[in-house]
Amino acid sequence: MKISVIGCGYLGAVHAATLASMGHTVVGIDVDSSKVEQLNKAMAPFHEPGLDELLKDGRTTGRLVFTTDFAAAADAQVHFLCVGTPQSKTSDTADLSYLMGATKSLLPHLAKGAAVVGKSTVPVGTVETLRAVLARRSDVLLGWNPEFLRQGTAVKDSLVPDRLVYGVPGGKGAAAGAPVTAVLDSVYEPLICAGIPRLVCNFATAELIKSASNAFLATKVSFINAMAELCDASGADVSELSEAMGLDPRIGNRYLHAGLGFGGGCLPKDIRSFRAQARELSVPSVDEWMGLVDSVNLDQRSRAVEVAREMCRGFLSGRTVTILGAAFKPDTDDIRDSPALDVAQQLAAAGAHVTVTDPKAINNAWIRYPQIRFEASTKRALEGAELVLLLTEWDEYVSLSPSEVGTLVRRRMVLDARNVLDAEAWRSAGWTVRGLGTGASVVAAENGEAKRADRKKHAAR
Ligand SMILES: NC(=O)c1ccc[n+]([C@@H]2O[C@H](COP(=O)([O-])OP(=O)(O)OC[C@H]3O[C@@H](n4cnc5c(N)ncnc54)[C@H](O)[C@@H]3O)[C@@H](O)[C@H]2O)c1
């Protein structure tokens, strides 16, 4: 089947390459010509494990090409819309201008009876708005197929997804939805034959499934981070608490790891868009709930800065601070709404001399944050540090040797804001270690006073 994928970013490039690997002939279309050029050289324009190989396969078989020209989509039977839906600059709502722009550009090239299927994350009602754009083309099928891949494991998630969701006119069992269901079944035939669950529903449900899933994940992270604050106030240890909670199969341990919280190009903007939808639909409880989840998440960043300040005996100004991690999470170079860079900025604003290192995200980061010093080499970044902050839990940082790092820094103090280091091993090597919510057990004796002050502060709230 000939398929076009419109928008070749973190989602679209992976989707296009996955479809080609399933045997389809795919044209990826993007307005960014440098991205298109790189993709045509079978080089991922961003870091995503396994994507280069998948792009190379597509190039070798001749089934995958990229272009900026929408006319190349003319003979495709299915068009997947994968453009960005970022948060609007002026409100919580999603900016749908890229989606509308892409659909309008596609419109003159749509073959008779072609299917237009959205994959971007959108608020309820978006499909109806798109239908209006396509109003004069009653022959065109419309579907919504939300995407659940995660950056860092996107290739695996696309090749073996947890589920397929089809939003179709009229929903499950409706005659009006049968043609687009049949088209999507042909697209995903290998996955359906492999037994991947596939759910058919109406448009509003398909739009909400993605938003509700992200809202739930964000709730889980903020819940455990709220527990972390409680642990800090009481002397409990949130890592032990979450481990024990997660063993209950009704709860599960995924997304139940306390730390610096979530960021990236999806979760933060999606929960804000969800709030805006709830307000529009007059469901204030969801709006309030998501507001709390968002603020607990953002508070983690200020808490990390406060703990860093305590560790520096109240004064950040003039301190040499090294930050391990710039990406919003490991295994990606994406720095959109990165908690690590937010903390870096706050520390720099407080007068600290901040150096940030990251295995993959430095190039993206230094363009956006010229006021921060970036250093590609972990070793050079650590030299002379008075405080080290682990803010993105890349494997190579988790496995650092505390004794070797100890020979590079000026003071052996680390704030493990992702609660991933072996605190005992680091303390044995002479380090003062603090986490977020890890209570008294990881606080070295010399910091006992700061800890007690911290507890008093929380108790007084
Ligand atoms: N990144 C993820 O992990 C992920 C997962 C699931 C869903 N999503 C959703 O997928 C959508 C895309 O996210 P992303 O992370 O890939 O964003 P992205 O910014 O990486 O990619 C969007 C791409 O669309 C291109 N584009 C913009 N306007 C265009 C137009 N008119 N025509 C053609 N191309 C155009 C941009 O140049 C860019 O390459 C969002 O709605 C997001 O919420 C993302």
TrEMBL record:
Reaction(s) catalysed (UniProt annotation): UDP-alpha-D-glucose + 2 NAD(+) + H2O = UDP-alpha-D-glucuronate + 2 NADH + 3 H(+)
Pathway in which this enzyme or protein is active: Nucleotide-sugar biosynthesis; UDP-alpha-D-glucuronate biosynthesis; UDP-alpha-D-glucuronate from UDP-alpha-D-glucose: step 1/1
Keywords noted in UniProt: NAD, Oxidoreductase
Pfam family, one: UDPG_MGDP_dh
InterPro entries: 6-PGluconate_DH-like_C_sf (IPR008927), NAD(P)-bd_dom_sf (IPR036291), UDP-Glc/GDP-Man (IPR017476), UDP-Glc/GDP-Man_DH_C (IPR014027), UDP-Glc/GDP-Man_DH_C_sf (IPR036220), UDP-Glc/GDP-Man_DH_dimer (IPR014026), UDP-Glc/GDP-Man_DH_N (IPR001732), UDPglc_DH_bac (IPR028357)
Domain UDP-glucose/GDP-mannose dehydrogenase C-terminal: start-end pairs: 322-423
Species: Paenarthrobacter aurescens (strain TC1)
Gene Ontology molecular function, alphabetical: NAD binding; UDP-glucose 6-dehydrogenase activity
Residue sites binding NAD(+) per the record: D30, K35, T85, T121, K269, R336
Domain of life: Bacteria
UniProt-annotated binding residues for substrate: K210, Y255, L256, H257, A258, G259, G263, K329
EC nos: 1.1.1.22
Protein name per the record: UDP-glucose 6-dehydrogenase
Gene Ontology terms: biological process: polysaccharide biosynthetic process; UDP-glucuronate biosynthetic process
Active-site residues (renumbered): C266 (nucleophile)
Family: Belongs to the UDP-glucose/GDP-mannose dehydrogenase family.
